Amino acid sequence: MRLVLLLLLVAGVAIGVGYPWVATNFSGEEIGSWRVYDRPGPYKPVTVNLKASDAPVRAFVDMQPLRNFIPAQGRTALTSVVTRQGRDVLVKTLTYENAKAANRGSPQGPQVYRDSIGDIDPIEPGDFTFTIGPGDYDGLEVAQVDLVLRRGAIGIDWRIVSAGIALIAISIFGLIRSRRRKDAVSVAPPPKWGR
User: Fold this and answer.
1) 3-state SS, residue 80
2) Which fold has domain 28-151?
3) Of 1, 95, 108, 178, which sits 20 to 30 A from 24 (CA to CA)?
């Protein structure tokens, strides 16, 4: 029974945690990467021509801070606006709250944080302008900012994620129950013999 519960736990982690992480970060094909900020210059808007066949396009913003950066809720590191023909398509403040730093180049290389602006889907063919700017995070000094676009990104089916989380909960509950039952049997008092 414990083996079945452990297999359920592994399946739940794969579906509930692994699937959305892989779908968000690795699905689709990279269209390209553009430098939107290089210290000490200004932030530069980037215009990219997108086709309907590119949909959905997932946009990421990679930020390399100069010093230690601790993402915090309610503190905006960068702002992002995506427009097409002067109309807003996506608007998002980037906090990098759930982002993990990745070292670029080598283990001692600069730390880079990635946050997602979101998905553009459906796409009306034409030029899309991506404007990234500073947020309200006091004392944040940024070295570089890159825009990364991926075409054909997989959307996340949250019903599958919910099923994975349910499997995790059921398997953990089952493992705890089986452990308690085993402990209760092993602690049972020895039978008394006598008159």
Assistant:
1) strand
2) Jelly Rolls (2.60.120)
3) 108
